[in-house]
Design a protein that fits this description.
The chain is α+β, with helices and mostly antiparallel strands. 17% of the residues lie in helices and 35% in strands. Bound molecules: calcium ion (CA) (4 copies). One calcium ion binds next to loops.
Length: 305
């Protein structure tokens, strides 16, 4: 009888993989198994291919994860086969058994060609290749404003959103953008469904997010809220006293972009109060002077007599 190798898998308890959930094209994956040569001659360049399969039968038609080459294996010897890399991006979402096929292309002549695959039967790998769905609702919590509606009262918004969903795993959080670019993106990330930006100047601002699931699939960027704020341009009919109460920005001391109309009216108002006080003092002095003069004249007339 001619000597031949016969490659087989060792017990699948000696095989395994490093995680129970992967993102297709995203997660670093490791798989290993142990193979033995039961034949009477050694084998070289043994290809061990790892596959994901929905069922318990493993063929080349299943999803190839990757392969490892074992340079040589002498008769009766055994070796571990190991593969690591990014889990392939072409494997659809779902639950899979992980298995391996030795010499899948059948380039090694063996005593038995039908004992060359095995798989891990006691667990399945969850593959999530599906991006999450972005939030469906977003509310602005400070006062009452509406998205894409101009207003002049709230310049310090705070946002909260809801409705994001994920298939196969869960929503991990959101990349978020806040700024004046309608197509803005950012690497800023929050795992809370909310964002509280600082106060803004006049303008149109976009609250945008991009939802990410726990394995790293991301949705496309979407605008949740368009915030429009513009301080009303004051005209001469405005009452300056009310203005300074309503809108602290109009305070001439604090306001960097100063409103000259406002200032003049404010200052006029102040100087009126000052002038009134001055007038009272002057009147008092004049009246006192006149009275003094009358007393002086009265006394002078009487002294002469
Ligand atoms: Ca075999
Ligand atoms: Ca299969
Ligand atoms: Ca073979
Ligand atoms: Ca997902």
């Amino acid at each position: 009888m001619t000597d031949k190798p016969d490659l087989v898998s060792e017990y699948n308890q000696l095989a395994g993989y490093n995680t129970s959930i992967v993102g297709a094209g995203l997660t670093e994956f490791e798989a290993w198994c142990k193979i033995r040569n039961l034949g009477t001659s050694s084998a070289n360049n043994i290809k061990v291919s790892f596959y994901a399969s929905k069922d318990t039968t493993f063929t080349k038609a299943d999803y190839l994860i990757g392969f490892d080459i074992i340079p040589s294996l002498s008769s009766t010897a055994s070796k571990e086969s190991f593969w690591s890399g990014t889990f392939p991006d072409n494997i659809p979402s779902g639950n899979y058994y992980i298995g391996w096929i030795i010499d899948a292309d059948n380039s090694i002549d063996e005593f038995n060609e039908y004992n060359n695959y095995n798989f891990i039967w006691y667990s399945k790998l969850l593959v999530d290749a599906t991006p999450p769905l972005n939030p469906t609702e977003c509310v602005q919590l400070n006062g009452t404003t509406e998205s894409n509606i101009l207003q002049d009262t709230i310049n310090n918004p705070e946002f909260s959103w809801s409705g994001a969903k994920d298939s196969h795993t869960d929503v991990a959080g959101y990349y978020y953008y806040w700024g004046e670019d309608p197509y803005g993106t950012s690497t800023a990330f929050t795992n809370l469904p909310s964002y509280d930006p600082p106060a803004i100047n006049n303008g149109t601002y976009y609250m945008r997010v991009c939802t990410q699931d726990i394995v790293g699939n991301i949705a496309s960027w979407t605008t949740l809220y368009i915030f429009k704020f513009e301080i009303k341009i004051n005209n001469t009919n405005d009452e300056p006293v009310n203005d300074s109460i309503d809108n602290p920005v109009d305070d001439p001391v604090d306001d960097p972009i100063d409103n000259p109309v406002d200032d003049i009216e404010d200052e006029t108002n102040d100087s009126i109060n000052v002038n009134l006080e001055e007038n009272l003092i002057v009147e008092f002095i004049i009246i006192t002077g006149i009275l003094g003069l009358l007393v002086f004249l009265f006394l002078k007339v009487h002294m002469k007599r």
